[in-house]
Amino acid sequence: MVPVLVSSKLKSLLIPLTRVVVFTGAGISAESGVPTFRGQNGLWNEFRVEDLATPQAFAAHPQQVWEWYSWRRELISKITPNQGHSAVAHFERFFSSFCLVSQNVDGLHDRAGNQRILKLHGDIWEVRCISCGLRRMDFRPVLSPLPPRCECGGMLRPGVVWFGEMLPSDVFERAVRETQSCDLFFSVGTSAEVFPAAQLPGIARQHGAYVVEVNIERSAAAHVAHEVLLGKAGEILPELSACLRGALAGPGSELAG
Ligand SMILES: [Zn+2]
Question: 186 and 221: one domain?
Fold first, then answer.
């Protein structure tokens, strides 16, 4: 693995008092083996969005939609978080002000140890009753029978944001507020093509944050980044995480390192 050269500017920001936002997308989970939706081998080349991930599809064919989510839940349950996820969990423990904003629904950040996560697109492990509105987590990979039912008798749906649905507004508003007030913003493994989430790197830049993109290729938002670190999140983030240990060692660590 090729070591990433951490710029002196970025290194100077890797101290506990820096307010940090990490914004993640499918790329970080793809490194663990979670199939992505876009791109060459994306799921949307194989399946039709309108058949599976819209409120209309669920109203018309709830069982078919649930079979697709069951398949994905089962697949994700066998996948483990990677070193990139672990590094993000380390960030949360290190920085006194930290917020993770994720577009991923797979729960890998939770499993890596992050506790403060704004999930813009929901969570595949959450179920929501379409009658009484109850929400709860259910980590069983396969629910049976399908579609699952709430205690009230109503039908449960996956707690994810479907195409044509609004993002949970309180979650997005909090993500924007955190982005506006941070000093350092990382955009990790996202192509920055899905709006409104894709606005966040630009908002960070407008409000004075130092913006760093970590991605295997330059994203649509790369032009707003001060630095683009090309490569896998699972390789680059652990290197940044190693710099945090140096920062924790306090004055003198610069000389020692
Ligand atoms: Zn209910």
Answer: yes
